[in-house]
Each structure stands twice: as structure tokens, then as C-alpha cells.
């Protein structure tokens, strides 16, 4: 089926469409009208902000990093929390969300298979994919079988609709009664929260696949974007995420704005999370240096009289490969040996030392490519 036929013939998904019309409609009409007519209490605004934060984090920490990617393990208390607030986000059940997301990673950008392929345009990847029943959006739970063993996931799946009502109407209603602003609370902490949380999540599929940098890979459209990381609880470091999806972090540097990472790490100190998975630094550096080479090669290939520079770069590239090969060999030798006799502790230390050396070497090489390209730039200026 061609792309255009698929687009024209896909029937409208009325459940999603009505849901979007109602929530957006209320948010752009009743919310400002009520504010101008009666005003909102400070407690109502604070509730809106807190609940928006909690709802968003249930999607990023729970639906995304925990359930879609198994980036860490979570205590049942935290899983129940995520299941409840994830339902409050009104982004479908854990099973549906994670199944679609795993397909997105597996077939990223494929216009026929990726449910929210960025190659089908900004609107499609943002919301368009949900308002019609495209074949690419059909879910098959075969890829979430591991989640079906989680009783909390299955409980949320079974009682999704009552949980949605309890979290989106029940909770704001209760808060409204406590703070004496029932309608205000329903409008802000209910409707407006849903709409803002929606778009914040949708940005990751649309904007984080369009604007930003690609420091680790250019094999897909995913981008790193610090500004959107700020809006999306850290998910804006999407280029990193697409290459190293099992890492519980998306922003890997300490200064990267990634509250989801901080929350997961914080929970580990009180036993709510464990087995936090990270990608070894040397692998991250390897990917970065590889991208640097690629960019430098492309640049020099286009330029005239760049033979000398190309040659220098090629030499660096040979060194890079030799370094990686040497390292891989040392690794396998060491592993063979340890299998025979060496103590586990010693092995860990030795490997850590090697990782460290390799990281240093890659770092130095990255600096050399940078200065090489800077020199080249100066020479042609
Ligand atoms: Zn992901
Ligand atoms: Zn993506």
C-alpha cells in the first residue's frame, strides 16, 4: 500500500479524536473564561503545576524508561504510582503505549512501520498518527510479552477506564473540595493539565525528531535538544536515547537537565528503584568520535585542495580502528583467562582500568579531530 493511499483511506479514530476535541476545546475556551470571570486560587495553580509534573514524570520514568526500555527495575509501590499517574496522562494503557514505542525504536523513521514516523511530517508525528487508524499504528502485543507478566501493568490494562476517570475527575474534585475551588481545580488540574502533558509528550515524537543536534548517530532523525529537554523532563536528549535506549539516563552529563534521571537515581537510595542500567562511557565516546570522523570526512570531501587534510584525517581514522581492535582483543583475552582462574574482583578492576584508558584515548582523539578541522578551517579562510 502506498503512502498516499494509506493516508486517504485510513478511517478516523473517533475515540482519540473526540477525546482531543473535548480536552483541547475546554482548555482553550472554558479555562480562560473561568479565569477571567471568577479567577483561580493560587492553590489551584500550584496543584496544576504539581500534578502536571507528576503526570509527565509517570510517562517519562514509568511508561518510557521503565516499561518500554527496561532501563531499571522498580518496586511495586512505584509501579502502582506510575500506572495511576500514567493513566492520568490519557495516553492509553502501558501495554499500548510501550508496544507502539518499541515499534518506533525498531523501525524508526520507516514511513510504513514506525507508528509516528518523523518522515511523514511534523503534524503526523506530533498528533496526526493518533486521529486516524493507520496500519502503521496498529498495535501487536507480541512485543510486550514481558510486560504482560507484570500484574500491575495488567491491572491497569483491565481497569484503564475507571482509573482514568478516578485520576482525572476524582483527584481534581477531591483537591477542589479540600481547597474550596472545585470548578477551578477541574479545569486547571484536570483539563489544562491533560492538554499540556499531551503536547509535552508529543514534542518528543515531533520536535525531538526534527530540531537539534546529532552527536551520536545520524542513522535516524532523532535529535538532542536542550530546550526541549527542559520541557520534557529530560527526554529532549533524544539522539542519545535512540542509540542507547537501555540507559536510564537521556541527558548523560551531570549538567544535562534530566529530572527523570535524577528521580530514578533518587529513588534508588530508598530502595524504590534498582539495577539502573547505563552504557559504558567508552561506548558513548566511540559513537561520538565516529560521528566526528563522518562529519569531517564529508566536509573535506566537498572541499577543494583538501588532500593533505584528508590524509591526516585518514591517519587518525586508522589509529581509531587500531585502538578499538586492540582493546577488543585485550578484552577477549582477559575474559578467557578469567574464565579459567582469575578472581572476579581483579577482573573487574582490570577491565575498569582498560575502559578508562580507552575513554582517555578516545577523548584525546576527539580533541585531535577538532583541532585538525579548526586548522583546516583557518587554512582555507
Ligand atoms: Zn524510547
Ligand atoms: Zn524517537
TrEMBL record:
Signal peptide: none annotated. GO terms for cellular component: membrane. It is found in: Membrane. Residues 44-256 form the Fatty acid desaturase domain. One of its GO terms (biological process) is unsaturated fatty acid biosynthetic process. Residues 286-375 form a coiled coil. It comes from the Bacteria. The keyword Lipid biosynthesis applies. Its main location: membrane. It is a multi-pass membrane protein. One of its GO terms (molecular function) is stearoyl-CoA 9-desaturase activity. The chain crosses the membrane at residues 12-33, 45-63, 159-179. The keyword Ribosomal protein does not apply. InterPro entries: Acyl-CoA_deSatase_haem/ster-bd, Acyl-CoA_DS, FA_desaturase_dom. Keywords: Coiled coil, Fatty acid biosynthesis, Fatty acid metabolism, Iron, Lipid biosynthesis, Lipid metabolism, Membrane, Oxidoreductase, Transmembrane, Transmembrane helix. Belongs to the fatty acid desaturase type 2 family. PANTHER family: ACYL-COA DESATURASE, DESATURASE 1, ISOFORM A-RELATED. This is Delta-9 acyl-phospholipid desaturase. It comes from Thalassolituus maritimus. The lineage of its organism: Bacteria, Pseudomonadati, Pseudomonadota, Gammaproteobacteria, Oceanospirillales.
